[in-house]
Specification:
The chain is mainly alpha-helical. The protein has nine helices and five strands, in the order H-E-H-E-H-E-H-H-H-H-E-H-E-H. Helices cover 47% and strands 7% of the residues.
């Protein structure tokens, strides 16, 4: 606990030093689970932050809020080379949530994807959401010494992915967890998919976003 608190305290100290109004956590499953579930008791209270924003806030919550307020403009056709599906990462799916409504950790990333691509399909319902499959690389397995085990651990997700590849032409697997992305980069070629098939949700956002010059 002491080490966990010491590491987390660096975030609080940096936020105070920089005078920020909110702390936003990026596309990292472990970071979000720790922030959502433990920061308040580890390094709270966060009374120095702007109370108008969630504490902590996931980057997907921030982007979704901007989309809902009409603050972002997208050209979906910029992603027309992709047929996208989404992998629900364990730490986000089962260890946290997003937004104000139950299941927000499932709905919000998909809403962002749909806002910036024309072609999105989900994998089979029994393989996503609360019943998602592990990427096979979590729990300390993300090392090249355990590649064989990682490949086997990825099999259920790869089977679900293969189904939408065959049926829908999926060629982009989006995820919001750094470990999942590292894992899939390594194991996708074992299942005859290109390693760059895996990508981030905000990679899709950055491709489609339209940035107007300042007036």
């Amino acid at each position: 606990h002491d080490n966990l608190q010491k590491v987390a305290e660096r975030i609080r100290e940096a936020a105070i030093d920089l005078g920020v109004k909110r702390i936003v956590v990026g596309e990292c499953g472990h970071a979000w689970r720790v922030a959502y579930s433990f920061w308040n008791t580890l390094i709270g209270p966060f009374d120095f932050l702007d109370p108008r924003y969630p504490v902590p806030q996931h980057i997907c919550e921030l982007t979704y809020d901007l989309i809902q307020r009409g603050a972002l403009t997208f050209d979906k056709s910029a992603n027309d080379d992709k047929v996208v599906t989404f992998h629900d990462s364990c730490n986000v799916s089962r260890g946290s949530r997003m937004g104000d409504a139950a299941g927000g950790q499932f709905a919000i990333p998909r809403a962002i994807i749909r806002a910036c691509v024309n072609k999105f399909v989900d994998m089979a319902p029994e393989t996503i959401g609360e019943t998602t499959f592990c990427c096979g690389g979590g729990g300390g397995l993300l090392t090249d010494d355990l590649v064989e085990l990682r490949v086997k651990g990825a099999l259920p997700r790869m089977q679900a992915l293969q189904q939408v590849v065959d049926d829908e032409g999926v060629n982009y697997l989006a995820a919001i967890c750094a470990i999942c992305k590292s894992q899939f980069t390594k194991v996708l070629p074992y299942y005859k998919h290109p390693m760059d098939m895996i990508g981030s949700v905000h990679g899709l956002v950055s491709k489609a976003i339209q940035l107007a010059p300042k007036q």
